[in-house]
Each structure stands twice: as C-alpha cells, then as structure tokens.
Amino acid sequence: MEHFPEVPTIQYEGSDSKNPLAFKHYNPEEVVEGKSMKELLRFSVCYWHTFRGTGVDPFGAATLERPWDDGTESVENAKKRVGAAFEFIQKLGAPFYCFHDRDVAPDGATLSEANKNLDEIASCLKEAQERTGIKLLWGTANLFSHPRYMHGAATSPNADVFAYAAAQVKKAMEVTHQLGGENYVFWGGREGYMNLYNTDMKRELDHLARFMHMAVDHAKDIGFKGTFLFEPKPKEPTKHQYDFDAAACLNFLRQYDLMDHVKLNIETNHATLAGHSMMHELTYSSIQNSLGSIDANTGDLLLGWDTDQFPTDLYLTTQCMLVILKQGGIAPGGVNFDAKVRRESFEPIDLFHAHIGGMDTFARGLKIASAIRKDGILDNFVDDRYSSYNSGVGEKIEKGEASFADLETYMLEKGNNDPNSSGRQEYLENVINDYI
Fold first, then answer.
1. Annotation says 240 is catalytic
2. Using one digit for the tens of pLDDT, what is the confidence trace for 416-425?
3. Catalytic residue among 25, 101, 103, 295
4. CB-based burial label for 253 (10 Å; 0-12, 13-18, 19+)
5. Nearest to 335 by CA among 134, 50, 37, 33
6. Which pTM does this prediction carry?
C-alpha cells in the first residue's frame, strides 16, 4: 500500500525551480571540500516527531492527520507505521533514520512483553532497511515517558527503577546493534531534579556514571562498536537536568572517566535554552574532540520552551557547517531532524515541505561555509589577531616556558604593553552577510 501516492521521489532541480516538492540546493552528489553533500550532511529523519507526533499541546488535542495510523498502541499498527515511515524517508532521499524504542514498538505490561514487541518490530525495520538501503543513524531508549521514571531513570532514588532502566537500555542497545546502528544516544530527560531539599546530587551523579559504565561494558560484550552520544539539555521537563550543556556533560565525562567512550549530540533548541548559541555548543564540543552528531532544529526565541521547529535560518546553518567542516565532517554522526511540524500544519504533505526546507537550508549553509573557508577571510583574521603568541613572550607563554616572575621582569623592562587592535566584529558580520 502506498501512503504518499501524490508525492514523487524528491529530486534536485536547482535554485530556479518553483516546484515545492523539489530540492533547490541539496544535490546529494554535489562535491564540497572533497566529499558529496550526502556524505557531509548525513541527513536523518526522526521517528518520534515525524511518525509519532500528533500535534497535541498542553492546551489542545491532537490535530495531525496520519491516515496510516489507527491511533492504537498495537503491534499491527506499529507495523503499518514502519511502511509509511520508510516510504516517506525513501521518497525524501534521506539516508538515515533514528528512533526511541517506544517510538517504534508498543510498551508492555511487563519488560518481557515490551521486549517481545520490540523484537517483532525490529524484524520489520530490518526488512525495510534491506529493501530500501536506508540505515539507522542511532537508536535510544525512552527513559522519561513512563510514570516509573517520574524521579529519573539512572538517577532515580528507587533501585528497582534503575534496574528496569538498565534492562531497557540493554535491549535497546542490542536492537540498535542488530539493525546496524552507527551510534547510540542517551538523553537524560528526567535525569535531574525539581528540588534540592529531597535530592542527594552526588549519589545521583555517581549512579548515572555507574549506569554509563555498565553500558560501555555491555557494548563490549555484544560487539557494538558504535559511538555513545550524550545529548545536552538544561531544563524541561525537570527544573535542572544534569546534562545541562556541553560544558556540564564534558565535566561529568571527565570526572567519571568516560571521555574515551562518549561524545555529544548537540541540538540547537537545547543550546538556546541553556543560554548559548548553537555555534558555541558546537565549537566547545569540537575543540575537545567531542562533537559526535547534531539534532537539526531551532527554537522560537519569543517562547521559552522546546518548540523543535525545522531550521530555515541560513545564519544558523552556515555557523553549524563552519564548525563541522573545520573538524572534517561529522561521521559517524549526522544531521538529524529532531523537529516537528506545527500543529496547524496537519496534512501529511506538510512533512515533506518541512524536511525539504530543512535539507535545502543546511545545503545552502554548507556551500556558504565552504566559500568562506576557501577565501580564508575568517581564519586569516583570527590568525592575525592572535599573532602575538607566535613568537617572543607569547610563544613562551603557550609553551609553558614563562612564569609570573618572568612576565613581571619582561613588563618592568618594557614599561607597558603593545596597543590592542580592533576586534572588528561589525566588519566581520558584514562579511558574513556578503556571503549569504
């Protein structure tokens, strides 16, 4: 059965095209800096928003029309959903998809029932992957929706909940491995606190680290060689989440000897909720060799919550690609559209418009970033700005060959510092405008 009969396979038609169901800038085979766009961008469609989203919000019921979905939490309905999902992804031309365990398969009254459901749907997913060539970018376990996780999962004060979460992640890792997933993600939606009066923060963090080391050990046991990814987010649903931002995550990983095992999956909307720009979070992760993947979305700066909108801002995507190109790409991670259509955009065709726009916006950002890098204007400016560290006293400082006493002697003899040069922020912003 065809679920999107009115939609052809989306093709690249170039910037002059007026076809809303065509790419204007994303040409999968176009080579940028020695790699095809398909290789560099590694687009992925998320299962949760795209195929499980209903348009419900705190003030209104579901609005989205999904003809393939009968609204039940049955295995048969989950199987039908797999057919619709892979038809959509194949027609879109995205090479990857991502899922939570409870997105693709119904939960169960017991763990064994939930595992049985997941195994049955995993067989359908594997068949669909083999039939279409679409791959799994990453899998993960939903450790936040069920009431048992009201106090957290790995950080729950209830040891039985910790145990259930461990068993659920074990199964999700095994299914991810079975399906050839290239990464495995941990998002601690409820790993945090609402009130410190009732929280033993040190014990909770110790437990979270213990949980992660168990995951590392199990990956070795089953032969999973994919990358583990932490996804930072500061708040919502908890008041404070332990994976607040890239800095907090990396501090945790260093403290508990996990740096060799885990990288970060950075999301735009989470970055802005933490009071950072996406470029900041990407740069902070990348300079520490910890940028593994990204969730491609954006928030509404007039709303203080996680709106998960599709990216349409060329400044945002250009900044993302400047960082990603500088580190040589993002594989084995990718650009995952953790984004949802608005509840007013309720027809299935709107899913295509949203993803096409996001993919074109990232493709344009990629080309703009590559042009900036080719001309070297930003790199040259930054190199010149820090040139005082290339020789003399600056070189000694960077090499660790100068003490406070040495620098005091140096300045006493010199009398005063050399004058500063302008940062020229406005000029550089104008330069970026010229490229865009």
1. no
2. 999 999 999 9
3. 103
4. buried
5. 37
6. 0.97
